[in-house]
Amino acid sequence: MAQHSQGMVLKQGWGLWLTHVFMVAGVLIIFFPIWLAFVASTVTQADIVAPPMPVLPGAHFWENYTKALFAGVNVPVATMLINSLVMAVGIAVGKIVISLLSAFAIVYFRFPGRMFFFWTIFLTLMLPVEVRIVPTFEVVAGFGMLNSYYGLIFPLIASATATFLFRQFFMTIPDELAEAARVDGAKPMRFFIDIVVPMSRTNIAALFVILFIYGWNQYLWPLLITTEPEMNTIVMGIKQMFPSGDDTADWPVIMATSILAMIPPIIIVVSMQKLFVRGLLDSEK
Fold first, then answer.
1. Domain check: are 217 and 167 in the same one?
2. How many whole angstroms separate alpha carbon 284 and alpha carbon 232?
3. In the predicted model, what is the mean pLDDT of residues 217-241?
4. What is the pTM of this model?
5. What is the domain-level CATH number for residue 109?
6. pLDDT tens digits for 246-273?
7. Measured over all CA atoms, what is the biggest interatomic distance in the chain, rounded to whole angstroms?
8. Domain residues for 227?
C-alpha cells in the first residue's frame, strides 16, 4: 500500500510538473510577439529594417512613445485612445444598464407577451451589427450622428447575451426578497436599486470586462461612420498607419501605438480580475 501511495504521489508530481511546463511554454509563445513589438517600439527604423532584428530594448523609448502619443502619423495616438476609451466605456455601461432593466422587467413583471419579447431579444443574437450595418448606418446618418460619440455608441448598446445572463441570475434570487420589499412598501425601482443591483455586482463586473474589450476592439462600425481623422479609434489608427504605395512605414511609431493600444484592456482585466472570476462562477450557478 505504501509503495502504491508513493507511486501515486510521484505520478501526481510528474503531472504537475508537465502542467507547469506546458503552461510556461504557452505563455512564452503568446508573449514573445508582444515582446518583439515592445522592442521594436524602443529602437530606430534602421534597427528594425536591418537584420537581424534586436531582441533587447533600445534607447529610443521616450522618443518613440512621445512621438506616437502627441504627433502620431495622421492623428495623435492620445486622441485615438480617448475616442476608444469613451466608446468602450459607453458601450459597456449602456449594454449593462439596458440589459439589467430588460431582464428585471421580464423576470419581475407579469405582462402579456412577456416571453415573446424575451425571445425576440434573444433572436437578435443572429443579427450582429455586421449583418444590419447598412440600415443601421442609414438610421444613424438620418439622426445626424455621424462623426460623434453618440453614433459610435448607441447602435451597439443593445445586448441579448447580457439580458439572458441577467435574467438567469435574477431567477435564482429568492421570491421572498421581492415579497418582503413589497410588504415594506418598496416600489419596484427601489427594490431594483437597493437589492437586485447590489446582488448582481460580480455579474456586472464580469460583463463589464467582456463588453469593454468588445467595444475597444470595434473596427468596422467606427470605420463606417467616422470620416474625420479626429474621431478615429485606436484600432482604426493602427490600420491607417500602414502606408500605401511606395511610402515607408514608421515601424517604431506603429509598434509603440500597438503597445499603447493594449494597455487599457490589460488594466481593466487586471484590476477587475477577482470580480471577473467570481462573476463567471456566479453566472454558472
1. yes
2. 38
3. 88
4. 0.84
5. 1.10.3720.10
6. 667 788 888 999 999 999 999 998 888 7
7. 79
8. 72-284
